[in-house]
């Protein structure tokens, strides 16, 4: 079997993205500064081609590639489409501000590499591949965080890097311990071997592994970098940091729970449930009185990770878990990117008060903002509502009713800080908004709001696709 | 047909935004009134074609999100039809009343049209998630109405309203998920859930689900102790917003009791009905007593809403009592509850619109600032008097029919509770009479804060055009209620059959 499945075409979306990144780097060295946008265009084409390839691959039955290292099943396929779609949106919002930047092509290349890391994390079925994907997703992201080379950006990058390096080392330690306990790194093998391995070893290994994966997901307790990195970096980078790596990390966690730790003596579901509870609660508490919009969104993403961890915690215990996670991931990605696009579209507006009078100046942009923020709350009929409904049902079904109640309470609490942003945006008067802005980002914001609504209203077919079983 | 009825207002609301920005405000007003009138005509058409013995009618189904057990399913029966009609009428009244509204009329009209969709959709919904979607969207739309067009403290009041009712809606969602997971196969469809009765024999699970659903609906209704969002929201909301909030949105809670809680959770409902009876009585008495202490006219009307909703909760609680076998009496209680929803919608809607008239002239709701208005504005005084008398349950008005049925139906199974709540009638009578005496009789006195006009003009044509039909209908229902009771009674009997399982 090992000889049979070493076909690079199985990894076509990943290969396309990597090739386009390398090609973009070469192109960028030769192109004049005014024409560096071609690299961005190339990246966008690679994303679109990757989405098509992923969709084609999704129609085929699930399979593994390169031994048992990589798997192509609904989880991978959905993550691929969501990550690549999210990358497209990030490219869209960064097109305007980076136009003519001396390092324009480098930016696009880094974005693609970060996305590639997320893709690898989502599909990895081997601890060593997870470690490689972790580095691939992290290192470009550190660079992107400090891309502007200004004070806050440098601070953001440094903090991000130090925390990432520490947790990365912990993760490698965890992987080593798990290797020792299970005598292997491939999930199917580990899942068998861990059934009767010493519990202390499994627990140590799992906690180390969790540290790294949660760092990428931006969940409690590995969330300390999120607010500073998001506030310090430029809005497009902030959009990227809070969405793309999360998708890969949560898909990886889901797989770990489903294939590796399901049979182990470790109380993995309870552990994830507690982390989910902590993440949603602490994220919300942090967001309450923020004045800076990026910082507010940063905390909001931490709390969203909490909701996303609900289906992860019941992986393998509820039939609804998989579709709930995947649907919520897609809904969260588009809605969160929509909110960040609005931030990108108004580069001069930093605090909540700067949004006063937005509805009068730019009614459509204000409407998009309202849709995305109410969407993040989980107001029907946006897609996050349906995602939350699925996630709540899955957690309920898996026996975590207390977590569902806590999530509902947190949802109400989150309404408070989202409203603190919505109210100035739709109220009258206030400062004169700078008329200039990022047109591409505006279009992305409209598109994201429409998709977020549309995905919610027409969620039926999407959910149907997501229910197919994953490979074990 | 039903789908068109529900979504047409939103479509028109979107069209309003397609019109150029310079369009004259008159166009928006006319479109709004015409659309509301068309909606009312459609509802009357529904009523004309409704067969009162036919159960669920005008049903429409579509696959929506089958893998999540969610479908698009709407229909009309004797419980929802009167409320649909009430919704159509009140929205038309508000559109007519707002003919002089100048502040951002396009957005105002669009919000109200959207709100009309959510209200009609909620009463027609036969799927729990569809119900929930409309439930939540009505909160969002009403939030913007209060925050955008309210009085001075509107932002705070709107936030309180949103947070409270949002907590309620999430509790409701938890209950719905509990029902969904208990059903086999998993479904959110109300008709199937009612047939399946999925929680039969599972007492703890059933009790928790009932708790979640009842808390969710009780916040919206609102009953004591979840009513504290109501007075500030009403006082700060614009008149038309208050009328809709009290007239239609509060009914979503009580409608939920008869549509969802009673038929789907019959066993636990019967077991815990006494709790609801107690909550109902406490709401009746607390609402009336606190209303008695108010000096602010609108706040007083708001508290009488708590009182009136209390009768409904009492009735649905008493209907569950099985000790007394007289089915007819219990059916009377449910019928009375639905009649009370309609009656309260008409009368409180009218009272809030009249409160708006008062505010527009004197710039305050404080009853102490007015006196002797009957001499300068006799028609206004007459309408307020009629609305107040009808609201306190005087025979000849719809309120009497409703409350009489509720008391007759509840007295057998719950004599003590019912006799206590009759005291509520006495208290409301006292407080309305006191308010009428203060504002309309005695020597003429007007608020003389700086900026208020020196004269108190009589009620204008468009204002009376909004209020008079509501009062006329209240009288018609009080004198000849048969045409509505014929619709409600079969439905309330079937609710009781479901409850007796």
TrEMBL record, chain A:
InterPro entries: NADH-Q_OxRdtase_suN/2, ND/Mrp_TM
Keywords: Cell membrane, Membrane, NAD, Quinone, Translocase, Transmembrane, Transmembrane helix, Transport
Domain NADH:quinone oxidoreductase/Mrp antiporter transmembrane residue range list: 124-412
One Pfam family cited in the UniProt record for this chain: Proton_antipo_M
Name of the protein this chain belongs to: NADH-quinone oxidoreductase subunit N
SUBUNIT field: NDH-1 is composed of 14 different subunits. Subunits NuoA, H, J, K, L, M, N constitute the membrane sector of the complex.
Family note: Belongs to the complex I subunit 2 family.
EC class of the enzyme, as a word: translocase
EC number: 7.1.1.-
Keyword Transcription: no
